[in-house]
Structure formats: C-alpha cells, structure tokens
Amino acid sequence: MDFTEIPRQLARTRRFSLGAPRTFSVSPDGERVLFLRTRGGEDPVTCLWLWQHGEERLLADPLLLGGDCGPLPEEERIRRERARERASGVVAYATDADVRLVVFGLDAGLWTVGTDGSAPRAVPTPGPVVDPRPDGAGRRVAYVSGGALRVVELDGGPDRAIVEPDGPEVSYGLPEHIAAESIHRSRGYWWAPDGERLLVARVDNSPVRRWWIADPANPDKPPQEIRYPAAGTANADVSLHVVRLDGSRTEVVWDRVAFEYLVTVAWDAHGPLLTVQSRDQRVLRVLAADPDTGATTVLHEERDRHWVDIAPGLPLRTASGALVRTSDADGSDTRRLLVGGKPVTPPGLQVREVLGSREESVLFTASEEPTETHLWSYEPANGLLRISEEPGLHSGAAAGGTLVHHAHTANGHAVSVLRKGGPVGAIASLQAEPLVAPRITWFSAGEHGVRSALLLPSWYEPGQRLPVLMAPYSGPAMQLVVRARHAGLCEAQWFAECGFAVVIADGRGTPGRGPEWERSVRGDKYRPVLEDQVASLHAAAEHCPDLDLTRVGVRGWSYGGSLAALAVMHRPDVFHAAVAGAPATDPWLYETQWTERFHGHPDEEPENYQRSSLVAAAPSLARPLLLVHGLADDNVVAAHTLRLSAALLAAGRPHSVLPLPSTTHMPTDETVVSALLRHQLGFLREALGVPAVPARPETNSGKS
Asked: Which residues, 6+ apart, have CB-to-CB distance to 77 below 8 Å?
C-alpha cells in the first residue's frame, strides 16, 4: 500500500495502540496472567484475556456480552479522558488477592468473571457503575455511582451506599481533576486487606472555579460545567477517611493546610500508607496512618528548593515493612531507589517507576541512557539485576516466580512470560505493522548532549536539498527520542516521505536524564528548550548538509504546540512556519499543580508567567502560524488558542485557526485525525514553498 495511506492508518489504529497487550496482572502462584487487548490492530474494542499454561483464553468480549460501547457515566467519561484512553470496551479491571475473580465495568454496568472458565456474569446495580473493585477475598465489590461509594455483596446480598455526598459539590471515591490529570492518581478508594474497611477520598469541589465548555457546532446542547483549578486559584478540598461497611468512618488526620495534595494512597499488610505534598511542591511526606484513630506518623520527608518529584508506583513497603522510596537528595544528580533508607541503586542509574514488591524484592524500571528504559530487580541476597537487554522501553509485572516482560523496541511490542529466568510462553501483540517504518539517525546535539533523531525520506539521495520540519514535544510529561517504534516516529517518517527532513529533539526538562536536567526549566519552561531545539537543528545539518536551513517548519501538540508557536515568535531567524496544536498559550489559564511546579505561584512570581505567555509574545509574530484546537478540550481549554488569536489580530499579525468541533485534547475520530495530518502538511508545504514529491517508499525498511 502507498505510504500516503499512513494518516488513515494512524487514525484507524489509534496511533498503533490497538492490538497491543497491556495492563498485566500475575496471580500470587504465578499460574495466571490477566491482560487487556483488542482483537486486532484496527479493532477499537478492548477485551479481557487470560494467559495460562502457555495459552491465551478470551475471558470477556464486550460485543458478545451485549455491550454496545455506548453512552458512559459522566464520571467514567472524564476518567477515560484523563487517562487518554483511546479504545472502548473493557478498558480497566480489578481482581481479588488470588487473581481468581475479575471485576470490570462495561458501559454503565457491573460484570464479574472467574479465571476458572466460568462465564461472565452481570451484577445488577441500582445505578451506573464507575471504577468497580473487589475486596481481597472476592466476596463483595465496591464502586462509585452518583458521587457515592457503594458496596454490593456477590452472594446475592444487598447493594448499599456506605458513604454518600454530603454537599452539592462533594463526591466520594473519585480523584479530583488535579490528581487524575497531573498527579496521575486515577483512584479514589482502596480496600483494606481484610475487606472490612476502605480508605476513601472525599472531594469537595466547591472552592474550585466554575467554567463552562460549550460545543458551538451543536448549539442545542447546554454547555458542560467543569470545576477547573487554574494557577493561583483554589484547589478542591480533599480529605481521606477510613470507612467501615456499616457506614461509620474515621478521618485520616494530617495538616491539610500545609499539605493540600493527596498524592498516593495504599493499604498493605502493615496498614494505610499515603503520600502528601505541599502546595508549592517543595515538601513531600510519606505517612503511616492508624486505621482505628486516623492519626498519622511521618515515615519520611523529602525537600527540594524547586520541587520534589512524585515517583510512579510509590508508596510501597516490602513484606518486612521496609519503606521503598526514591530520592535525589544525595548530590549525585540521580533519582535513586532506597529500601529501608538504604540506597540500592548506583549514581547514574535513574529510577523511572517502581512496579511492585514481592517479599523483599523490588521490581522497577530505570535508565542509564535516557533513550532507553530497562527492567530491573533488587533483592537483598542478590543485589541488583538488569533483566532486559535489547535497546528500547521495557516494563513488566511479577508474582509467584513468574515475570511478564513487556518490551517495546524498534520492532514494536513483544511480551514474554518467564519462570526462573527462562521463557515459558509469550502473549501475542496484534498491533498493525506501519506502512512505512521509521528510518532514524540518532545523535546528540550541542553542549547539553540533547538526544535527537533525524528522519530522511526513503527516496533521498545526497545532493537533494530538503526543507526541515522540527517535530518536538520536549516537555516534562514524556519523551519522543526513544529506541522504540512509536506513533510519533511513524508520523514523522510520513512527513519525511512527503518531502521533509524531520528532526525530533528531547531538550531540557524531559524525563530520564536526572533531576538537574528536569528542573533546569524552573521559572522558564520554554526558552532553554527552544535553545536545545536550535542546537539539534544545527547538529542535524552537520550530519546531513543537504538540510535547507532557509526553510524550517515546526509542529507540535500540547506542550509541543506551545513550543512550536513560541519558536516562530522568538526565533523567526531560525523557524519559518509553525503548526501549534492545543497549545497552552496563557499560563494563568492552566491548572495549579502543573503550572505552579515550573512557574511558582502567580502572586509571588508573576514574571515567570509573563515570560512563558504566548499571548504576551503575540506582537512579535512574523511567520506563518496555524493554530489547531479541540473545542471540547477540558485539559487545555480552547480559550488558550482564542486568546492568542485575539492578541494576534489586535497586533495585526496574520495567522490561521482550525477549530475542531466536539474534539477533546487528543483527537481520536478517524476522519479528524487523518484529515488533520493532511491539512498540516498542506499548510507547511505552502508556507515553506515545498512542492509535492514522487512517492518511492521502501516499505517497512529502516536503520538505527
């Protein structure tokens, strides 16, 4: 098939996410592995699967269960938007302690299925179901409905609300906006191991500003009301309670004025464990709680003059009660793993995520080189062990002597099941194969060694001048320059085949290179990163002298969109056209936790906000700029683009705006995604004077 079909393939495959297995759970005896996966690379409906004795078995297919993947409860729709969920069907599940009972929500209903071969069973509930989770013994299921936390007995007993909203803006058992979007805490309640009590978050949104998001393409629909905590304004009031099955409760007590962010929560064999953080994010505390009195004890406190990072997968304790945490306070510029207060990883090995603990061993991911993330384990008797070898992004799950090793490499996704260090099976990845594979030259640029990738057309021959397209994200949320075949690289190759040399660079602030690198953007989130993009561009031209530096475009989305717009405003001598998708143009309009981490509080450090405002920079625009924004975006609201457009218009600066009706922060509609890529290509070709080129792709070939 012709490479020109790549935009449609990116759309149909939801950027190659469909068909890839994910969300693995291993039973304590190591015999069973649960996972989610669609039936193929273009199938958007996620099913629940079981791997056992070397074979896969389908446990729950939503289409066979009568689920039409139709309207969702509003709370579930929001949860999926915060999680950037691209598929439908069974997109999440939870199990009992032995991984024998599986619970999931489908549409608005509650379902259970056993791993023993029994058929899925619908459990009647009086209302819609959000985030169902069984207790450890599999006797009952808790779920959220209408802001209340309910518990249903699976033996035919009652379904009852154990705690209900006590105010019009109060909910129980769900994360607030900041927790779900920026802290990445997707849950709001946690079972005790004995199944008799739960830790439940109470969220009171009444202090939070009220915003409305309208759908101009459907004027018959009322605006959607949201509570959005913009920088410098009030957050939701979040508290934590031990709730018993009879509805009685005890509040977990900590200084919620000084530590208003409830970051993470767990309830293990040693009791409740939680992490809280100050509003300025410079102090983080790990607390143990007494479930009978609610009193808390400080187990650890971490401080930093910029901010303390939140480590995914923590808090965590080993079987003996040793606290597992990360720290970068030793001066080594390394985020190290500590067990029981003792560093167990060396300087230079950056811990990325803690995946779990079994007895005294800890499974985690870490990077020695920022373009790769490997799977590691630590146990006191044998020390550190690196499990993965091939360059790429590696992760896993383990229990009962079984390890599920998920490898995302230049060849795509592969999942191996190992016991005692040897393979005993595999879980198939059904991802679609890209029509054109990325052809990448890897390099490091400038004095900071900015990790970069250069992608050239398959038909390129030395002596052919090529316009350049910079395609960064380069923000704190993720990396693009990694040794794994992902949608961003495939998309970049499509632009290359259309006549560009594409350069991608992960500048300062991106993950994986240590605390000093990440915190170097404190106070100025864009200018250092922009300098790194320029350094990468010049280094790419040294690798390939045919790059035409008089025709350089830049495109990006979200943080990358903001960076693209600023590039043509601040450096028109380097960048000659830009496409900015969903850009955060006005830092006063973005949320508290994310914005204040980098800029501080706007009342205390307003100069940082002014420095990073695209609206303030509008009069400097002298290059073609295309702004793209989803009008239903409740993360980076469309007001960001509208305010910038108004400022550009007032300053007499021509520009283009492409609104996307009924589209949220990450477009998923096949027509929109495909047409949007082609529209961007047309804009860049016209702005930079790039003619159409003949297609001579070398399908599925590449280099590293």
From this structure: none
pLDDT, mean of residues 417-432: 94
- Domain architecture of the chain: domains with CATH: 440-688 (3.40.50.1820)
In the three-class reduction of DSSP (H, G, I as helix; E, B as strand; rest coil), residue 18 is classed as coil
Tokens of 176: 């607030």
CA distance linking residue 490 with residue 412, whole number of Å: 11
Single-letter amino acid code for the residue at 591? E
Tokens read off for 381: 């008797």
Confidence tier at 74 by pLDDT (50, 70, 90): confident
Q: What's the 3-state SS for 361-373?
A: EEEEEEECCCCCE
Give dist(CA 435, CA 437) in Å, integer: 7
Find all residues with CB under 8 Å of 223, minimum gap 6, and list them.
212, 213, 214, 215
Contact criterion met (CB below 8 Å) for 686 and 242? no
442 conformational bin, left if phi > 0, alpha if psi -120 to 50, beta if neither:
beta
Q: What is the pLDDT of residues 495-516, one digit of tens each?
A: 999 999 999 999 999 999 999 9
Which band of pLDDT confidence, cut at 50, 70 and 90, is reported for residue 84?
Answer: confident
Q: Comparing C-alpha atoms, which of 635, 658, 672 is closest to residue 78?
A: 635
Give the separation between CA 559 and CA 684, rounded to whole angstroms.
Answer: 20
Q: How far is CA 615 from CA 66, 180, 648, 659, in A?
A: 49, 28, 8, 18
Does this model's pTM top 0.90? My answer is yes
Rounded to 10°, the helix 487-497/670-688 angle is: 40
> What is the C-alpha to C-alpha distance for residues 246 and 27, in angstroms, rounded to an integer?
31
Residue 640's DSSP bridge partners are: none
CB–CB of 540/547 below 8 Å?
yes
